[in-house]
Automatic annotation (TrEMBL):
Catalytic activity reported: a 2'-deoxycytidine in DNA + S-adenosyl-L-methionine = an N(4)-methyl-2'-deoxycytidine in DNA + S-adenosyl-L-homocysteine + H(+)
Recorded family membership: Belongs to the N(4)/N(6)-methyltransferase family. N(4) subfamily.
Signal peptide: none
Keyword annotations: DNA-binding, Methyltransferase, Restriction system, S-adenosyl-L-methionine, Transferase
The protein, known as: Methyltransferase
Record domain DNA methylase N-4/N-6: where: 24-316
Superkingdom per UniProt: Bacteria
Keyword S-adenosyl-L-methionine found: yes
EC code: 2.1.1.-
Keyword Transferase among record annotations: yes
GO biological process assignments: DNA restriction-modification system; methylation
Length: 331
């Protein structure tokens, strides 16, 4: 077994085979999307000439994720789509190849590839249960210069389980009740007259005993702290709604030299509802270490892989900067 609370500089397939079976409670990851970015390292995923090659390589990795995940664990996969052979410089590279979908139909130039769903269904055929697709809605998504379709501002987060029953805590990521529901509740129950709507955060978080992120970025476990207090009453009075399947989260650019990081809220939501404090979280494509950061903020352990040593150094410096003594020295 490899050391935990560490980002290992290696190909994730190689790293995963060194991990023990059933050792991880949850996996959260955003692999390289097919032919969208070059992460400047030999052996990187995403540079395959065809979508089929990409899916096959990804399936070898998800088979290992299945092996290392505990039976009651969850696997969260963030993927975005792309267009075949469109005018963007990123996809010009793909244009050199003849690509076809998994049913063997060749793509026309400009066609949406539909890769996230092809990947999801291929993973399902490995024995995973596809439990949910979440739409990550980006309110401040990148502008596109297209005039013959809508500008895209969403990606997918697929949630897979190994079996029908798994660990999931809905309160940990509950969301505020709507005004209409609150009004109904007050009418039905005069005791619920006060301001029961949580101000911010996830109602169940405080019960989990995790360190909480204050607005200024520091951490707290103190129940008297406003950041902690604002997350407590809601769960006690059930004044929260089950989180909906569209997550509106602004992509926050990480200021370091890695251009494809997801916002910390994405892994944080996944981790909070599918693990308990102290559980182990895996990210096979760590990039700038966002999953490691979210795991540490919520009091979970992490393990991850990153093929490019420059990004590993970047991630370790980021963890040291943001968490101080909570992590190891940068390599
Ligand atoms: C989309 S980025 C992940 C970003 C990450 N979620 C974050 O927020 O920082 C994908 C990362 O996977 C890495 N990568 C590509 N192929 C890999 C492989 N075979 N094993 C491990 N890492 C790989 C790339 O270098 C890149 O940093």
């Amino acid at each position: 077994m490899l050391p935990i609370n560490e980002i290992h500089t290696m190909d994730c397939l190689q790293g995963l085979t060194k991990m023990s079976a059933d050792s991880v409670q949850c996996t959260v990851t955003s692999p390289p999307y097919w032919r969208q970015r070059d992460y400047n390292h030999k052996g990187q995923l995403g540079q395959e000439p065809t979508p089929e090659g990409y899916i096959n390589n990804l399936l070898a990795i998800t088979a290992q994720i299945h092996r290392v995940l505990r039976p009651d664990g969850l696997f969260w996969l963030n993927l975005g789509d792309g267009f075949y052979h469109s005018s963007g410089s990123r996809s010009k590279r793909a244009g050199a190849t003849i690509a076809q979908d998994l049913l063997g139909t060749a793509y026309q130039p400009k066609e949406l590839i539909g890769l996230p769903w092809q990947v999801a269904l291929a993973i399902r055929s490995q024995g995973w249960m596809l439990r949910q697709e979440i739409i990550w809605h980006k309110p401040n998504g990148m502008p596109e210069s297209v005039k013959d379709r809508c500008t895209r501002n969403h990606e997918y987060i697929f949630m897979f389980s190994k079996q029908p029953d798994y660990y999931y805590d809905p309160a940990a990521i509950g969301q505020p009740l709507s005004e209409a529901t609150l009004k109904d509740k007050r009418l039905c129950n005069p005791c619920v007259a006060g301001p029961i709507r949580p101000q911010r955060g996830y109602p169940g978080a405080a019960q989990q005993g995790s360190r909480l992120l204050r607005p200024n970025g520091t951490l707290s476990t103190d129940p008297a702290d406003p950041a902690t207090a604002s997350r407590q009453p809601a769960a006690q009075s059930q004044a929260w709604a089950n989180r909906r399947s569209v997550w509106t989260i602004a992509p926050k650019g990480f200021k370091g030299a890695h251009y494809a990081t997801f916002p910390t809220s994405i892994p944080e939501l996944c981790i909070r509802c599918s693990t308990r404090p102290g559980d182990l979280v895996l990210d096979p494509f760590m990039g700038a270490g966002t999953t490691a950061l979210a795991s540490s903020y919520t009091g979970r352990s992490y393990i991850g892989f990153e093929i490019n040593p420059t990004y590993v150094k970047l991630a370790k410096n980021r963890l040291l900067r943001e968490l101080g003594l909570f992590c190891g020295q940068p390599g």
